[in-house]
């Protein structure tokens, strides 16, 4: 997944040898997706899209941790 018209990977985080978590921008919306060698699955829609300055810091890792905790509870 590179960049297609209206679709781009904003940030990604490896979570295994062939697995990763990515934030994908689709128009004005952002989605957290899980990517493996076998599939791509939407994990969540971000309520507050990440901004460029947040991506330059550890904000992505922080928001990712919050989403994981939220997902575990619900």
From TrEMBL:
GO terms for cellular component: bacterial-type flagellum basal body; plasma membrane. One of its GO terms (biological process) is bacterial-type flagellum organization. InterPro entries: Flagellar_biosynth_FliO (IPR022781), FliO/MopB (IPR052205). It holds the Pfam family FliO. The keyword Metal-binding does not apply. Keywords: Bacterial flagellum, Cell membrane, Cell projection, Cilium, Flagellum, Membrane, Transmembrane, Transmembrane helix. Coiled coil: none annotated. Its main location: other. It is found in: Bacterial flagellum basal body; Cell membrane. PANTHER family: FLAGELLAR PROTEIN FLIO. Belongs to the FliO/MopB family. This is Flagellar biosynthetic protein FliO.
